[in-house]
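Chain A, query sequence.
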Amino acid sequence: MALTVNGMQVAVPTDPRVSLLDLLRERLDLTGTKKGCNQGACGACTVLLDGERVLSCLTLAVQADGRSVTTIEGLVVEGAMHPLQQAFVEHDGFQCGYCTPGQICSAVAMVEEWRRGLPSNVTGDLASTQIELTHDELRERMSGNLCRCGAHNGIVDAIVATYVTEGAR
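Chain A, predicted structure.
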């Protein structure tokens, strides 16, 4: 049994109780993924599993067998920050930075969900495949990731600057 983490094959732990978060942080030394509440409430541990956002504290490593995991470290390409990482810097999308890796991973997947036309709880027309990523729509889609420092406006600004075309705000 194996999974791919940031493009590298990794053996799945023999202990079926090991969370994906503990595999990443404690066994693979990928400490960008944070352990916040360890109960699935804060989103600090969000990573991408086959491109979908998951809470790694609630996901067992064995559930990722044969799948691809991308952490915040995996978003870096050839030493260059992902455009959203750069936008977080430019728009002050972090203060203490603890939630930032989960926020960024969540936003990357959230934008793909939006592009596929998946509705959120505030989407007005559930049949529409062209959903405007308004302020309220974006905040609802990112509501599973908490920031206790109050950098929400910078986070929203970074996402808008990276993904939303003018006029779609």
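The chain is about 30% helix and 10% strand. The helical segments are 20-27, 83-90, 100-115, 135-141, 152-163.
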